[in-house]
Amino acid sequence: MGRLLLLAILLCEVAYHLRLGGTSPILWTDTVFEEHEVQSCLRQSHCSALGTSASIEGIAFANGWLMLRDFLGSLGIGTDGTHVLIQLLRAVEALLLAVAAFRLSGRTATALVLLFGSTAAGLAWHVTLPLFPDGTLQPALYNVVLLPFLGALLVLLGVLIREGEGAPAVVLAALVAAIAANVHVAAASAGVSVVLLGLAAPRRRFALAALALVVFAGAAYSISPATWQHDLREITQHLHGQSIPRKLGGGTADRSPVLGALAIVGLGWLASLAWKGVKAQRLRSGMTVALLLAGPPLVATWVAGSRGLASYEARYFSHAVPAVIFAAALLLGSILSALASFCVRRFDTLATPLERVARLLPYLALVLLLVRVRHADYFNDEPRVAGAEQAARQLRDGHRWTWPMVFGQLHTPEGRLPMELLEQLIPWPIEARTTDDAAYLLTVDRSLLPDTLPPSWTRFNMNSTGAAVLAMTHSGLDWKHFELCWKDWSGRDSCQPCGLIPNPAGSDTQAILPCWPDRPYPEITARVPWTPRPGSDERIIMPRSKRWSLCSGDVARVPDGSSLTDEGLGARLKGTAAGTVELRWRPGSAACPVENYSAFPPLVLAGETRTVELLAQVIASSRRNP
Amino acid sequence: MKRLLLTCLLIALPVHADDSVDQDAETGRCLPPTVGAEIQKLIDRKAFATVTPAGWELQSTRVLSHRIELSFADGPRTNRLALIAGNTEADAHGQQFSLRVLQSSDAASKEALLRAGQLVDAAIPASSILECQTQPRKFTRARAIGTGALEALALLVACLYGVSRARRVVS
User: Fold this and answer.
1) For position A505, what pLDDT does the model report?
2) pTM as predicted
3) Could you give the ipTM of this predicted complex?
């Protein structure tokens, strides 16, 4: 392949992944957790020696990923910059696979790798691509997103090992595997793969396998010794108790991703053994590399899944997906080449046209990549870190807000997650201030917003269609001191004081509101004090949405002089005397499905009439991504 | 040149792994697995019910390498306490552990959590808490950034090496 073609492919892949992933990550739980660790390291020199908690009970992982992020952060490459870098690495991933396929099998397999190699889930023509999802969420930034790139790098180095490149390739492959194991504990199986690759080398097999083992074990342990000690200790403890660590949270019991991938690499390898032809040796090399790289992670996922340690999701073998793509492309490429040879033997006149088609294949793949770039569109109106950061700066620098104000007076449809992120993104003053300011932060499709926004609104454009909106208003509702009541399943009523006040310093949890029930009791009521603002009325709307998973309620009671509207879904607050507004939610009802309920106050729009009605209109007209 | 770079990488990773850690973040005391059995005895005796208000229910206990976490449900609320082996900044101190309230709904809940913590503290013999064999849980900024830099360097070298070797043969 010419350099120009490689460059063109790389540029197309970069454009494609930037279109899909965007230039700023979406608001995602893991992103927020990781950002907390990174900022704690960079600002306070408290860097985790363990990493974060895995979804397997008691297991720590991902410290290698956190330290990579610490390093990038020290260079001034923050969340957005790292996210863009990951999109670039996704593009490089396709290029690495293309180079490996070209070395072994020529143009057809290379073109197929490029077509199959769009490993991130995406949408084109409203059809989910690709054939081989790698289990990562493209617009999010978290440890798993690095694994497919590492997997592709292992494929290329694996091909070199199999082709006799010797110790340098083995050492580098072992180092990459060690880094992968410290990015996600499930990728520790890459260590087994590199040892097997050493054994599959054409010369000095045992020496290379031993070298791979030593380098992998030494480097993996050295990157984060405490993590491995901790995990070993946890596993030992569980073994003492005659039990194994438990998977936390849900997952899929669908084994088809693992089975499908195993079938491709397994059957492909068997087919390569029986292959007769001029390129049989190289096909066997490629399929062996794919089997050795994909086999251990797939078998490990299968075993872990069958023992309840993990589910069968692709994210547990993300680093194996490039090897599966590689195997599929080599096999199909070989079949197509064999068919072409057969046709040429039978019909001489086809030789020249088929040769031309073969020459053009990489260019055809390039054209398809370009089409894919044109149609890539993904998560355009999801909340992004960049929007949250701009809103945070606007609040802090433009409106002089402090952290307690953000916690108590900023409301979003996403609940407490944005709070946790906002706390990490910029340093906040921590003194409490009493004002009747209220703010709402939404990320929506720009077309839903009026051409001229109210002066108190600020719009931050995120991408071609999405925008974050910060709407400032004034509200007499005091969310910092209200009474919370609930009716439990036996019909017993209980009440307690509550307030949107951040945890004191020193707590190891963020944005937790202990007074808010974390169980979805049949009825929950907040009695919120209201102080009228002289000369202006206030509007309350309990929003409904087809896009956000809101727990919606109604207004049960308003102070004298005020009135309920929309059959209790809203209220107009008037009068000069302070009073109490009673807001009610019924978890388990159609308006508040249990799965939408979280231990944080649901969204209530309250403030100046124009702002609240416009916000409710935007929320009601916003639709979920197709 | 490549061999030299590889050698440097291989030497740098393990050497780097031994460098500074933040000792302040640790008490140097660690818990063996047998600690879990002592807590189980308390649960079997329903001992926590004697020190916590009516309606409290023990949700979970976690024995980590240097601390124990207890979580109690009080109706809709969750109250959490950490018992950290050794002497460190905390809400109260027992014989063996420093008691740190992680989450409580009010002052009475905090008191109840600390009573439960004292119960655990008294139940675990001093001899069962060991000097830590493991490394501390915090790295310094320099250690974390240095390791991250080496990881990035290793990936860059692997990438350049792979592409250059593969293309050289193809060409």
Assistant:
1) 44
2) 0.79
3) 0.86
